UniProtKB/TrEMBL annotation:
Modified residues (N6-(pyridoxal phosphate)lysine): K190
Keyword Transcription (UniProt): no
Gene Ontology molecular function: any one: transaminase activity
Annotated protein name in UniProt: dTDP-4-amino-4,6-dideoxygalactose transaminase
Example GO BP: polysaccharide biosynthetic process
Top-level taxon of origin: Bacteria
Organism listed in the record: Algoriphagus halophilus
Length: 379
């Protein structure tokens, strides 16, 4: 269904057309070509300190990251429960077992305390987790210092799922650069998009070379095709990289726009009891990929689903927050540590339209519809 005001719509107002025409004129649309290197170099420059390998999706980036840290059949991998399924699916691709951990209420991301409980419990049961997947959900940085301290204490590698946090910062540094390996996604509705795409980032050259090698079918550098290990067809292609490069050039302006949209929602909805926002901590700067609100039904008299359906009737797309993975039927047998933090966020939350191109008038309209609902239930 086409929405009049979609949740997160891409903006192509830069060099997308020019670069794709150049890529087509070059005749090279496959997994080598000038735009792939340009895209990787630009991305490395933006996030500083790290090198990047451009891939065909965020999911394949997570899969490769897990291969690189050595996840094998029968291993256990700890994963934030409150996230999109792609954070955990590659654990299963590798024949390993996901162990889900609840969020904390400040950032909505994996709780450092519960993470440590989970590690100790798994060790007591006889198996030390092979890796930890943490996520910066909706662009909001997790409590990275506390989480890395726990991971380092037990010497467990961390994979930083920054799929939603391209352009987010923690203590002034880019999200994705704190753990052993970080990943990004450039899928259709992320803050920048290459159509589909992803990247692995790391500051370890050997790891980056290994990722590049595995992503192109582990083909040896010989005049004939020779393979010493099983690889993947995961590299980004040149046409996609052309779009990605043009989008990357606009990243700062998109982050600025989405932050402005977030501020305006806050200002417009600030006075209504029962509606609250995801709060940034002093050390972090979210890209506010999506603005999210929590609706306390006891105070507002209406649920998140009520607002969703009223806005939908007006052609406006909103979305529930991610359903926690430990509550997903497909993961029902996976162990879970924690309480009901992620579950409550899921049942009260709503993502509001947050496109970089959202106009003031559109935002006023969205808020106006929510206000009408509020008035109905207050008076
Ligand atoms: C989008 C997303 C991914 C997967 O990225 P794709 O490019 O869609 O494969 C992984 N993790 C999170 C948290 C995401 O939002």
């Amino acid at each position: 269904m086409a929405y009049r005001i979609p949740l997160s719509f891409p903006v192509f107002e830069g060099n997308e057309k020019c670069y794709t025409e150049q890529a087509i004129a070059s005749g090279n649309l496959a997994t080598f070509g000038a735009f792939i290197n340009k895209f990787q170099n630009k991305l490395s420059k933006k996030i500083k300190t790290h090198q990047a390998v451009a891939l065909n999706s965020g999911t394949s980036a997570l899969h490769l990251a897990m291969v690189l840290v050595g996840v094998e059949p029968g291993d256990e991998v700890i994963c934030q429960s409150f996230t999109f399924c792609a954070s955990a699916n590659p654990i299963v691709y590798l024949g390993a077992q996901p162990i889900f951990v609840d969020s904390e209420i400040d950032t909505w991301n994996i709780s450092p305390e519960i993470l440590e409980d989970a590690i100790l419990s798994r060790i007591a049961l006889g198996k030390k987790p092979k890796a930890i997947v943490l996520v910066h959900l909706f662009g909001m940085p997790a409590k990275i210092n506390e989480l890395m301290e726990v991971a380092n204490k037990y010497n467990i590698p961390v994979i930083e799922d920054a799929a939603e946090a391209v352009g987010s910062k923690y203590e002034g540094k880019s999200c994705g650069t704190f753990a052993d390996i970080g990943i990004f996604s450039f899928n259709g509705n992320k803050i920048i998009t290459s159509g589909g795409g992803g990247a692995i980032i790391a500051n370890n050259t050997e790891l980056i070379q290994k990722a590049a090698h595995l992503s192109t079918q582990a083909r040896e550098d010989l005049p004939y095709y020779q393979h010493l290990e099983i690889g993947y067809n995961y590299k980004m292609n040149n046409l996609t990289a052309a779009v990605g490069l043009a989008q990357l050039e606009k990243l700062e302006s998109f982050v600025k726009r989405r932050r402005e949209i977030n501020t305006r929602y806050r200002n417009l909805l600030a006075d209504f009891p029962g509606i609250s926002f995801h709060q940034e901590r002093s050390e972090s700067e979210s890209n506010y990929w999506l603005t999210t609100i929590l609706i306390d039904e006891e105070k507002t008299g209406f649920s998140n689903d009520r607002i969703r359906s009223v806005l939908l009737n007006n052609g406006i797309e909103t979305r529930f927050l991610w359903k926690p993975l430990h509550l997903q039927p497909v993961f029902k047998r996976a162990p879970f540590y924690g309480g009901r933090v992620a579950e409550k966020l899921f049942s009260n939350g709503l993502c509001l339209p947050s496109s970089s191109s959202l106009t003031m008038d559109q935002q006023q309209e969205i808020v106006g519809i929510i206000e009408k609902e509020i008035q109905k239930s207050y008076f």
